[in-house]
Amino acid sequence: TERTFIAVKPDGMNRGILGNIISRFEAKGYKLVGIKTLVPSKQLAEEHYSALKEKPFFKDLVDFITSGPVCAMVWEGEQVVVTARKMIGETNPLSSAPGTIRGDFAVDVGRNVIHGSDAVETAQREISLWFEQGELTAWEPTSAVWIYE
Ligand code: GTP
Ligand code: MG
Q: What is the ipTM of this complex?
C-alpha cells in the first residue's frame, strides 16, 4: 500500500485546525505512521519546494513555510496519495469544493493550510526528506478488517 506526505502549514497550526485535519484522515480509514512538529529550516523548505524554484512566488512560499510550526505527517493506505489530494482540494482555496480541507478552511492561495504530495514518487522523495526511517512506525490497527475487505 501507499504512503503520502502531509504537512499542516503555519497558518493551519496557528488557526488550531490540526486536530480537525487529522480527524478527517483517521475517519477516512487511513493510518498515521509518522508525525512531528518543527519549524522547517530554509534549506529544508527550499529542497521541499525545489520544483517551484523558478516561480515568482517561490521566495514568499519559502518565507511562509519557515515562519512558524509545521506538523509533518506520513499517512498510509490504499491510494492515499491521490485520495489525500482530493480531500485537500485545489491549490487555490476559492476553487476548492466545500467539504475539502482548503474549501472549508482557506481563502488565499498563499495561506492554503496544508500540503499533500502530488504523486507516489514525489511522496517517497518528500517522506525521506522530512523523516528518518526510524521515525516511521509500521503497525496494524485492529480496525483494518472493518476498513478493507
Ligand atoms: P502543495 O500541496 O503545498 O504542494 O500545494 P499544491 O500541490 O496544490 O500546489 P503547488 O505544488 O503548485 O504549489 C505549492 C504551494 O505554492 C501552494 O500550496 C501555494 O501555497 C503556493 N502557490 C502555488 N501557486 C501559487 C501562486 O500562483 N501564487 C502564490 N502566491 N502562491 C502559490
Ligand atoms: Mg504541490
A: 0.95
